[in-house]
Amino acid sequence: MLDLRRLRLLVELSRRGTIGAVAEALSYSPSSVSSQLGVLEREAGVALLEPVGRRVRLTAAGELLVGHAVHLLAGVERAEAGLAGLHGEVVGTVRVAAFQSAVLTLLPPALLDLRGQHPELRVEVTELEPEASLPALAGGDFDLVLVEEYPGHPLPRTLGVDRAELLSDGLDLVVPRDWGHLEVGDLADRPMAGQPPGTPAREWAVRVCREAGFEPDITVTSSDLQVQLRMVERGLAAALLPGLSEASSHPGVRAVPLPGRPRRQVHTATRSGAGDRPAIGAVVCALRAEGAGESRHTTWVIAGQ
Question: Which pLDDT does position 85 carry in this prediction?
Fold first, then answer.
């Protein structure tokens, strides 16, 4: 009979790529992971791994078993969620990872609501970008993550992870107020702030500028949107920022709608089968409840619609 714990190791190997990475993520020794995978191979009766230089990769049988194991692990998550739901109590710990603007704007009011409604619920928050938070969610490091997708840059699908749309967030050109009434096409000779190269936000922003007929002169690079916004306030740069950065509330800047009114999508993500846990559901409900007070730039998605 196949052991579920060993199947989880195989799934983790398919996600993380190396035995060393699996060992580090799950606090095992590499030799222990290798030993347990060897036992799993004997249980399965076929080779699941094959050497490639100093590393290993899954065989066809290993890939097949991973597909089944993901469904089995999701079934365990659903069973645990069902048992938790029998009691109807929102207790325990929910580990949340979210990108910066969500941590700054969405989570604080939701956490305050949860503190009053569910005092026995503990929510732990980590700021983390989607490229790191989604694999960590699948590996069990988090229970709920908030991720963002910029236009034309969909996130890769992560094995064993379910997503649900939370909101649609408008994207604007933000310029210093004393620069006057500018549009994106007027920035060819102006400095700009942007996120690091290779990020979806940076690639999207560069594309917007190129479509307007110029190559952006990015003089400030930061993954911190508040740093970018501060540079705009001081008259040092323009930036392309989402509505959740709350740029429109700063008196020293002007938010200008972009052609076509582009939007980024914000999703919640959970491991398959875990979304029905009352504690996770309570956090998601608290996030959705904040929709009534948001600006015109943010469109909230109501569950079930």
Answer: 62
